[in-house]
Amino acid sequence: MKRVQSLLGVIILLALFYTLRDDLGKVEGFLPHFFLIAVISYSILNLLLAFRIQYLLQKMGIAANFGCVLVAHLGGMIAGDVTPGRSGYLSTAKFLSRCGSNVSTAMAAILAPQGVEFIVKGIGAMLAIAYFHSGGAIAGIAIIAVGAIILCLLWSRRFDRLTGFVESMPLGKHVLSMREDGMKMRGYVMQILAVSLIGWLLVGIQWYFVGLSLGMKLRFLEYLLLQPLLTALMFVPITPAGLGIMESASVVVLYMLGVEPSIAAVFAVLTRISGVIADLPGVYAFLVSSDHT
């Protein structure tokens, strides 16, 4: 199934570039120094997200080394880059076991921020829809709903009545342990939110400089609003990290803003590549043994 999904993503991407083949020759004047700044911006985001995980683990009584947490986070990020719905990022929890954390606590430290991230991304998507006067508010609402569901499952006491049922399930005790750790993290929601907002800004900077590397004339605010709207498509579990789907949507949306389809297609691909380059050190997490992390 994974091979089929990967193949589908590649086919969509190739079909997009085949359609634009006559226009791609018009793309010229690539400025690599701006692209490098984009990669650096995303790398700073990775450092920030790793710090958030370390912070939450410390609040749970786990004194994890930052270097170990960073390797675990990057390992999850590179896995997310090649899996449908970016589900591979959950492997971060397994890597964090090398840092002295149990898997349930690590999962709580990952899922609680992810719930907040989805809500922020959904609000950003709705702001983008309002700003660009386009339809499709249901997409923003759906993203917010996903985040709200995650947080309710982790933080709401309304689900306590299901404890007996969950405990009887395979891995039920691990799920309940994760939820208890998640409940403890409710007190740090403002810190989680602050990192999410700074992260949104950093990815906006990444997109802005990828655009500058191609000579695009959009304003920073437009990149900032487009980012949550389009990156939400990376979580569509059809192709690895929305491969081909996000790029196709980017071409349509950017064309509506006056960007040539060929430039828009290259922009979307370079945006993805800049993130993958920043995540690439995460390969180390798959190569190193637990006693060397």
Number of β-strand runs: 0
Content of β-strand:
under 5%
Report helical residue fraction.
over 70%
Query: What would you call the shape?
Result: globular
* Oligomeric state as shown: single chain
Structural class: mainly alpha
Give the SSE order as H and E letters: HHHHHHHHHHHHHH
Query: How many structural domains can be distinguished in the coordinates?
Result: 1
Q: Rg to the nearest angstrom?
A: 20 Å
**Biggest β-sheet, characterized?**
none
Work out the helix count.
14
- Unreliable segments of 5+ consecutive residues: none
What's the end-to-end separation, in Å? Answer: 32 Å
Q: Average the pLDDT over all residues and give the rounded result.
A: 78
Subcellular location: Cell membrane
Transmembrane segments: 31-50, 62-80, 130-155, 188-209, 229-257
GO cellular component, one term: plasma membrane
Main location: membrane
Could you characterize what this model shows?
The two termini are 32 Å apart. This protein has helices spanning 2-19, 21-24, 32-59, 66-80, 92-96, 103-131, 137-155, 163-167, 172-184, 189-213, 220-231, 245-256, 261-279, 283-287. The radius of gyration is 20 Å and the shape is globular. It is mainly alpha-helical and 293 residues long. It has one domain. It holds the Pfam family LPG_synthase_TM. Keywords: Cell membrane, Membrane, Transmembrane, Transmembrane helix. The chain crosses the membrane at residues 31-50, 62-80, 130-155, 188-209, 229-257.
What are the SSEs and their pairings?
Blueprint (H helix, E strand, L loop, with lengths): L1 H18 L1 H4 L7 H28 L6 H15 L11 H5 L6 H29 L5 H19 L7 H5 L4 H13 L4 H25 L6 H12 L13 H12 L4 H19 L3 H5 L6
Helix pairs in contact: 3-4, 3-10, 3-13, 6-7, 6-9, 6-10, 6-11, 10-11, 10-13, 12-13
Keywords: Cell membrane, Membrane, Transmembrane, Transmembrane helix
Membrane topology: Multi-pass membrane protein
Subcellular location: Cell membrane
